[in-house]
Protein backbone atom coordinates (compact mmCIF):
# COMPACT_ATOMS: atom_id res chain seq x y z
CA UNK A 1 0.00 0.00 0.00
CA UNK A 2 1.35 3.45 -0.89
CA UNK A 3 1.27 5.90 2.03
CA UNK A 4 0.70 9.62 1.60
CA UNK A 5 4.04 11.38 2.08
CA UNK A 6 4.50 13.40 5.25
CA UNK A 7 5.44 17.04 4.53
CA UNK A 8 8.51 18.10 6.49
CA UNK A 9 9.57 21.76 6.45
CA UNK A 10 13.19 22.44 7.39
CA UNK A 11 14.42 26.00 7.86
CA UNK A 12 18.10 26.85 7.55
CA UNK A 13 18.36 24.00 5.09
CA UNK A 14 21.68 25.19 3.65
CA UNK A 15 23.36 25.44 7.05
CA UNK A 16 25.62 22.93 8.71
CA UNK A 17 22.87 21.22 10.75
CA UNK A 18 20.68 21.19 7.64
CA UNK A 19 23.37 19.34 5.73
CA UNK A 20 23.67 16.73 8.49
CA UNK A 21 19.89 16.43 8.84
CA UNK A 22 18.29 16.29 5.41
CA UNK A 23 19.90 13.07 4.18
CA UNK A 24 18.84 11.23 7.29
CA UNK A 25 15.26 12.55 7.09
CA UNK A 26 15.13 11.37 3.48
CA UNK A 27 16.44 7.93 4.44
CA UNK A 28 13.72 7.35 7.05
CA UNK A 29 15.39 8.29 10.32
CA UNK A 30 12.88 11.00 11.25
CA UNK A 31 9.59 9.15 11.02
CA UNK A 32 10.40 5.53 10.23
CA UNK A 33 11.69 3.32 7.45
CA UNK A 34 8.25 2.93 5.89
CA UNK A 35 7.14 6.58 5.87
CA UNK A 36 7.62 8.56 2.62
CA UNK A 37 8.52 12.21 3.07
CA UNK A 38 8.28 15.39 1.05
CA UNK A 39 10.85 18.03 1.94
CA UNK A 40 10.06 21.75 1.97
CA UNK A 41 13.25 23.73 2.49
CA UNK A 42 13.27 27.34 3.68
CA UNK A 43 16.32 29.57 3.32
CA UNK A 44 17.11 33.25 3.09
CA UNK A 45 17.44 34.40 -0.56
CA UNK A 46 21.27 34.48 -0.47
CA UNK A 47 21.40 30.83 0.57
CA UNK A 48 18.79 29.43 -1.83
CA UNK A 49 21.45 28.44 -4.36
CA UNK A 50 23.33 26.42 -1.75
CA UNK A 51 20.03 24.75 -0.76
CA UNK A 52 19.51 23.88 -4.42
CA UNK A 53 22.92 22.22 -4.41
CA UNK A 54 21.93 20.13 -1.39
CA UNK A 55 18.66 19.22 -3.16
CA UNK A 56 20.70 18.03 -6.16
CA UNK A 57 22.68 15.76 -3.87
CA UNK A 58 19.48 14.49 -2.23
CA UNK A 59 18.20 13.58 -5.71
CA UNK A 60 21.47 11.82 -6.43
CA UNK A 61 21.00 9.55 -3.42
CA UNK A 62 17.84 8.09 -5.04
CA UNK A 63 16.23 7.64 -1.61
CA UNK A 64 13.13 5.47 -2.10
CA UNK A 65 11.24 7.36 0.65
CA UNK A 66 11.87 10.85 -0.74
CA UNK A 67 8.88 11.86 -2.79
CA UNK A 68 9.83 15.47 -3.59
CA UNK A 69 11.84 18.56 -2.62
CA UNK A 70 10.66 22.17 -2.85
CA UNK A 71 12.79 25.17 -1.95
CA UNK A 72 11.43 28.51 -0.73
CA UNK A 73 12.63 31.88 0.49
CA UNK A 74 9.13 32.72 1.73
CA UNK A 75 8.01 31.35 5.09
CA UNK A 76 4.28 31.38 4.26
CA UNK A 77 4.83 29.11 1.28
CA UNK A 78 7.38 26.90 3.04
CA UNK A 79 5.03 25.96 5.90
CA UNK A 80 1.96 25.38 3.70
CA UNK A 81 0.58 21.94 4.51
CA UNK A 82 3.56 21.05 6.76
CA UNK A 83 3.01 18.10 9.12
CA UNK A 84 6.40 18.46 10.80
CA UNK A 85 8.46 21.65 11.00
CA UNK A 86 12.10 21.74 12.06
CA UNK A 87 13.06 25.34 12.78
CA UNK A 88 16.83 25.22 12.50
CA UNK A 89 17.62 28.44 10.65
CA UNK A 90 19.00 31.04 13.00
CA UNK A 91 22.22 32.78 13.74
CA UNK A 92 24.54 30.35 15.54
CA UNK A 93 26.48 31.46 18.57
CA UNK A 94 30.08 32.25 17.77
CA UNK A 95 33.13 32.29 20.04
CA UNK A 96 32.75 34.55 23.07
CA UNK A 97 29.07 35.29 22.40
CA UNK A 98 26.52 34.61 25.15
CA UNK A 99 23.19 33.08 24.23
CA UNK A 100 21.37 36.08 25.67
CA UNK A 101 22.98 38.18 22.91
CA UNK A 102 21.10 36.10 20.40
CA UNK A 103 17.62 37.01 21.62
CA UNK A 104 17.26 40.13 19.58
CA UNK A 105 19.10 38.79 16.53
CA UNK A 106 16.90 35.71 16.29
CA UNK A 107 13.63 36.89 17.78
CA UNK A 108 12.63 38.56 14.54
CA UNK A 109 12.88 35.31 12.58
CA UNK A 110 10.54 33.25 14.75
CA UNK A 111 7.57 35.64 14.94
CA UNK A 112 6.94 35.60 11.19
CA UNK A 113 7.55 31.84 11.07
CA UNK A 114 4.97 31.31 13.84
CA UNK A 115 2.49 33.39 11.83
CA UNK A 116 3.21 31.37 8.70
CA UNK A 117 2.65 28.10 10.60
CA UNK A 118 -0.59 29.50 11.96
CA UNK A 119 -1.72 30.47 8.47
CA UNK A 120 -1.00 27.36 6.50
CA UNK A 121 0.44 24.32 8.29
CA UNK A 122 -1.50 21.05 8.42
CA UNK A 123 -3.87 20.45 11.35
CA UNK A 124 -1.51 17.88 12.86
CA UNK A 125 1.60 20.14 12.68
CA UNK A 126 4.40 19.31 15.12
CA UNK A 127 7.12 21.93 15.55
CA UNK A 128 10.64 21.43 16.87
CA UNK A 129 12.78 24.52 17.39
CA UNK A 130 16.53 23.90 17.21
CA UNK A 131 17.76 27.42 16.42
CA UNK A 132 19.04 29.20 19.53
CA UNK A 133 17.98 30.45 21.98
CA UNK A 134 15.73 27.48 21.27
CA UNK A 135 13.26 27.63 24.19
CA UNK A 136 12.52 31.30 23.77
CA UNK A 137 12.44 31.11 19.97
CA UNK A 138 9.84 28.36 20.38
CA UNK A 139 7.88 30.61 22.75
CA UNK A 140 7.94 33.43 20.18
CA UNK A 141 6.75 31.11 17.39
CA UNK A 142 4.04 29.62 19.60
CA UNK A 143 2.68 32.99 20.72
CA UNK A 144 2.48 34.04 17.08
CA UNK A 145 0.39 30.98 16.18
CA UNK A 146 -2.74 31.39 18.31
CA UNK A 147 -4.80 28.88 16.30
CA UNK A 148 -2.31 26.03 16.74
CA UNK A 149 -2.51 24.11 20.04
CA UNK A 150 0.38 25.34 22.21
CA UNK A 151 1.60 21.80 22.89
CA UNK A 152 2.63 21.43 19.24
CA UNK A 153 5.55 23.81 19.80
CA UNK A 154 8.61 22.22 21.37
CA UNK A 155 12.29 23.05 21.68
CA UNK A 156 15.28 20.77 21.63
CA UNK A 157 17.04 19.59 24.77
CA UNK A 158 17.53 16.08 23.41
CA UNK A 159 21.13 16.91 22.54
CA UNK A 160 21.75 17.79 26.19
CA UNK A 161 19.95 14.58 27.17
CA UNK A 162 22.17 12.53 24.85
CA UNK A 163 25.29 14.31 26.13
CA UNK A 164 24.24 13.44 29.69
CA UNK A 165 23.74 9.77 28.74
CA UNK A 166 27.20 9.65 27.15
CA UNK A 167 29.00 11.23 30.13
CA UNK A 168 27.18 9.06 32.65
CA UNK A 169 27.73 5.85 30.71
CA UNK A 170 31.50 6.46 30.73
CA UNK A 171 31.59 7.21 34.44
CA UNK A 172 29.38 4.27 35.44
CA UNK A 173 30.96 1.81 32.98
CA UNK A 174 27.61 0.93 31.41
CA UNK A 175 26.16 1.37 27.92
CA UNK A 176 23.84 4.27 27.15
CA UNK A 177 21.00 1.75 26.75
CA UNK A 178 21.47 0.66 30.37
CA UNK A 179 20.45 4.16 31.51
CA UNK A 180 16.76 5.01 31.88
CA UNK A 181 14.84 8.11 32.91
CA UNK A 182 17.47 10.74 32.22
CA UNK A 183 16.09 14.26 32.56
CA UNK A 184 17.26 17.68 31.45
CA UNK A 185 15.32 20.43 33.26
CA UNK A 186 14.97 24.06 32.19
CA UNK A 187 16.68 25.97 29.44
CA UNK A 188 18.95 24.77 26.62
CA UNK A 189 21.76 26.87 28.02
CA UNK A 190 24.55 26.68 30.58
CA UNK A 191 21.93 26.89 33.38
CA UNK A 192 20.23 23.64 32.36
CA UNK A 193 20.02 20.93 35.00
CA UNK A 194 20.89 17.36 34.01
CA UNK A 195 19.34 15.27 36.80
CA UNK A 196 21.00 12.08 38.08
CA UNK A 197 18.63 11.68 41.04
CA UNK A 198 15.84 10.31 38.87
CA UNK A 199 17.95 8.67 36.17
CA UNK A 200 18.26 4.93 36.77
CA UNK A 201 20.83 2.24 36.10
CA UNK A 202 19.68 -1.31 36.83
CA UNK A 203 16.79 -0.01 38.96
CA UNK A 204 18.96 2.18 41.24
CA UNK A 205 19.32 5.93 40.88
CA UNK A 206 22.33 6.99 38.83
CA UNK A 207 23.46 9.27 41.70
CA UNK A 208 23.58 6.24 43.99
CA UNK A 209 25.37 4.04 41.43
CA UNK A 210 28.00 6.71 40.80
CA UNK A 211 28.26 7.55 44.54
CA UNK A 212 30.36 10.64 43.90
CA UNK A 213 28.58 13.92 44.65
CA UNK A 214 31.72 15.89 43.85
CA UNK A 215 31.83 14.43 40.30
CA UNK A 216 28.11 14.94 39.88
CA UNK A 217 28.27 18.58 40.94
CA UNK A 218 31.65 19.72 39.70
CA UNK A 219 32.28 17.57 36.63
CA UNK A 220 29.08 16.02 35.27
CA UNK A 221 26.72 19.00 35.44
CA UNK A 222 29.17 21.59 34.03
CA UNK A 223 30.46 19.22 31.33
CA UNK A 224 26.95 18.58 30.01
CA UNK A 225 25.75 22.16 30.45
CA UNK A 226 28.79 23.73 28.78
CA UNK A 227 29.29 21.10 26.09
CA UNK A 228 27.95 23.40 23.37
CA UNK A 229 30.61 25.98 24.19
CA UNK A 230 33.33 23.27 24.38
CA UNK A 231 32.40 22.04 20.89
CA UNK A 232 32.53 25.59 19.54
CA UNK A 233 35.95 26.05 21.14
CA UNK A 234 37.24 22.77 19.65
CA UNK A 235 35.67 22.86 16.17
CA UNK A 236 35.47 26.59 15.65
CA UNK A 237 31.79 26.00 14.80
CA UNK A 238 28.78 24.88 16.80
CA UNK A 239 27.75 21.24 16.98
CA UNK A 240 26.11 20.03 13.79
CA UNK A 241 25.96 16.25 13.31
CA UNK A 242 25.13 15.63 16.97
CA UNK A 243 22.49 18.36 16.88
CA UNK A 244 20.95 16.87 13.74
CA UNK A 245 20.96 13.42 15.33
CA UNK A 246 19.21 14.75 18.44
CA UNK A 247 16.57 16.50 16.29
CA UNK A 248 15.80 13.18 14.61
CA UNK A 249 15.61 11.48 18.03
CA UNK A 250 13.26 14.19 19.35
CA UNK A 251 10.73 13.94 16.54
CA UNK A 252 11.01 10.17 16.24
CA UNK A 253 10.27 9.73 19.95
CA UNK A 254 7.42 12.26 19.82
CA UNK A 255 5.78 10.44 16.91
CA UNK A 256 6.58 6.84 17.78
CA UNK A 257 6.49 6.92 21.61
CA UNK A 258 8.81 6.41 24.57
CA UNK A 259 9.61 2.87 25.70
CA UNK A 260 7.77 1.36 28.68
CA UNK A 261 9.59 2.31 31.90
CA UNK A 262 11.53 5.15 30.32
CA UNK A 263 11.09 8.80 29.43
CA UNK A 264 12.88 11.50 27.48
CA UNK A 265 13.63 15.22 27.76
CA UNK A 266 11.73 17.76 25.69
CA UNK A 267 11.25 21.48 26.17
CA UNK A 268 7.46 21.88 26.18
CA UNK A 269 4.88 24.42 27.29
CA UNK A 270 4.63 24.29 31.07
CA UNK A 271 1.30 23.56 32.73
CA UNK A 272 2.74 24.81 36.03
CA UNK A 273 4.25 21.42 36.97
CA UNK A 274 7.25 21.45 39.32
CA UNK A 275 6.79 25.18 39.95
CA UNK A 276 7.67 26.14 36.35
CA UNK A 277 5.46 29.12 35.48
CA UNK A 278 2.63 28.19 33.15
CA UNK A 279 3.35 29.01 29.52
CA UNK A 280 7.16 28.94 29.65
CA UNK A 281 8.75 26.46 27.24
CA UNK A 282 10.97 24.53 29.61
CA UNK A 283 12.60 21.11 29.50
CA UNK A 284 10.86 18.37 31.51
CA UNK A 285 10.83 14.60 31.77
CA UNK A 286 8.15 13.55 29.29
CA UNK A 287 6.59 10.36 28.03
CA UNK A 288 5.12 10.23 24.53
CA UNK A 289 2.37 8.12 23.04
CA UNK A 290 0.29 8.29 19.86
CA UNK A 291 2.01 11.52 18.85
CA UNK A 292 1.27 13.32 22.14
CA UNK A 293 3.64 14.16 24.98
CA UNK A 294 2.90 14.24 28.68
CA UNK A 295 5.00 15.66 31.53
CA UNK A 296 5.98 12.97 34.05
CA UNK A 297 4.23 13.98 37.27
CA UNK A 298 4.87 13.43 40.95
CA UNK A 299 8.67 13.20 41.08
CA UNK A 300 10.20 14.22 44.39
CA UNK A 301 12.52 17.18 43.99
CA UNK A 302 15.13 17.61 46.73
CA UNK A 303 16.68 20.90 47.74
CA UNK A 304 19.73 20.51 45.49
CA UNK A 305 17.62 19.84 42.40
CA UNK A 306 15.12 22.55 43.37
CA UNK A 307 17.83 25.21 43.37
CA UNK A 308 19.16 24.10 39.98
CA UNK A 309 15.74 23.91 38.35
CA UNK A 310 14.75 27.30 39.74
CA UNK A 311 17.94 28.94 38.41
CA UNK A 312 17.32 27.71 34.87
CA UNK A 313 13.61 28.51 34.96
CA UNK A 314 14.38 32.01 36.23
CA UNK A 315 16.60 32.50 33.19
CA UNK A 316 13.74 31.41 30.94
CA UNK A 317 11.43 33.89 32.64
CA UNK A 318 14.01 36.63 32.07
CA UNK A 319 14.26 35.70 28.38
CA UNK A 320 10.47 35.76 28.12
CA UNK A 321 10.39 39.21 29.72
CA UNK A 322 13.15 40.44 27.40
CA UNK A 323 11.36 39.35 24.22
CA UNK A 324 8.14 40.72 25.69
CA UNK A 325 9.80 44.14 25.99
CA UNK A 326 10.97 43.85 22.39
CA UNK A 327 7.34 43.28 21.37
CA UNK A 328 8.08 39.80 20.01
CA UNK A 329 5.42 37.99 22.04
P1 LIG B 1 24.42 27.71 10.14
O1 LIG B 1 24.80 29.14 10.23
O2 LIG B 1 25.37 26.73 9.55
O3 LIG B 1 23.07 27.60 9.36
C1 LIG B 1 21.97 28.40 9.63
C2 LIG B 1 21.23 28.55 8.34
O4 LIG B 1 20.01 29.23 8.64
C3 LIG B 1 21.97 29.37 7.28
O5 LIG B 1 22.04 28.64 6.07
C4 LIG B 1 21.12 30.63 7.15
O6 LIG B 1 21.11 31.14 5.83
C5 LIG B 1 19.75 30.09 7.55
N1 LIG B 1 18.80 31.11 7.99
C6 LIG B 1 19.06 32.25 8.68
N2 LIG B 1 17.92 32.95 8.84
C7 LIG B 1 16.94 32.23 8.27
C8 LIG B 1 15.54 32.43 8.11
N3 LIG B 1 14.94 33.53 8.57
N4 LIG B 1 14.83 31.49 7.44
C9 LIG B 1 15.42 30.39 6.96
N5 LIG B 1 16.75 30.14 7.08
C10 LIG B 1 17.49 31.05 7.72
O7 LIG B 1 23.98 27.27 11.62
P2 LIG B 1 23.84 25.79 12.20
O8 LIG B 1 25.13 25.37 12.73
O9 LIG B 1 23.13 24.94 11.20
O10 LIG B 1 22.92 26.07 13.48
C11 LIG B 1 21.59 26.47 13.37
C12 LIG B 1 21.02 26.85 14.73
O11 LIG B 1 20.94 25.73 15.58
C13 LIG B 1 21.85 27.87 15.51
O12 LIG B 1 20.98 28.77 16.15
C14 LIG B 1 22.55 27.03 16.55
O13 LIG B 1 22.94 27.80 17.67
C15 LIG B 1 21.46 26.07 16.87
N6 LIG B 1 21.84 24.85 17.59
C16 LIG B 1 20.97 24.40 18.54
C17 LIG B 1 21.24 23.24 19.23
C18 LIG B 1 20.29 22.70 20.29
O14 LIG B 1 20.66 21.73 20.96
N7 LIG B 1 19.10 23.23 20.50
C19 LIG B 1 22.42 22.55 18.95
C20 LIG B 1 23.28 23.03 17.98
C21 LIG B 1 22.98 24.20 17.29
C1 LIG C 1 24.92 23.33 21.40
O1 LIG C 1 24.42 23.03 22.49
O2 LIG C 1 25.84 22.68 20.88
C2 LIG C 1 24.40 24.53 20.67
O3 LIG C 1 23.27 25.02 21.28
C3 LIG C 1 25.43 25.53 20.41
C4 LIG C 1 25.60 26.52 21.54
O4 LIG C 1 25.51 27.70 21.24
O5 LIG C 1 25.80 26.13 22.67
From TrEMBL:
Residues 7-147 form the Lactate/malate dehydrogenase N-terminal domain. It is an enzyme of class 1 (oxidoreductase). It holds the Pfam family Ldh_1_N. SUPFAM superfamilies: LDH C-terminal domain-like (SSF56327), NAD(P)-binding Rossmann-fold domains (SSF51735). GO terms for molecular function: L-malate dehydrogenase (NAD+) activity. NAD(+) binds at residues 12-18, 106, 113, 130-132. Residues 157-321 form the Lactate/malate dehydrogenase C-terminal domain. GO terms for biological process: malate metabolic process; tricarboxylic acid cycle. InterPro entries: L-lactate/malate_DH, Lactate/malate_DH_C, Lactate/malate_DH_N, Lactate_DH/Glyco_Ohase_4_C, Malate_DH_AS, Malate_DH_type2, NAD(P)-bd_dom_sf. It catalyses: (S)-malate + NAD(+) = oxaloacetate + NADH + H(+). Substrate binds at residues 93, 99, 132, 163. The active site is at residue 188. Keywords: NAD, Oxidoreductase, Tricarboxylic acid cycle. Its EC number is 1.1.1.37. HAMAP family: Malate_dehydrog_2. Catalyzes the reversible oxidation of malate to oxaloacetate. Belongs to the LDH/MDH superfamily. MDH type 2 family. This is Malate dehydrogenase. It comes from Actinomadura harenae. The lineage of its organism: Bacteria, Bacillati, Actinomycetota, Actinomycetes, Streptosporangiales. The gene is mdh.
Amino acid sequence: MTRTPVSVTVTGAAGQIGYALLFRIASGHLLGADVPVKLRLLEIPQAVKAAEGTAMELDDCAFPLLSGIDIFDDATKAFEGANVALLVGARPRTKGMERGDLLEANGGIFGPQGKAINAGAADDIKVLVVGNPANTNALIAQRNAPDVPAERFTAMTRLDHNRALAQLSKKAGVTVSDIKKMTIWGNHSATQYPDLFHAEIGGRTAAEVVGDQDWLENTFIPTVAKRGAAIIEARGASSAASAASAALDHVNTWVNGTAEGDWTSMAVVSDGSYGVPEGLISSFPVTTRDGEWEIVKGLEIDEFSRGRIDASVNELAEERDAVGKLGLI
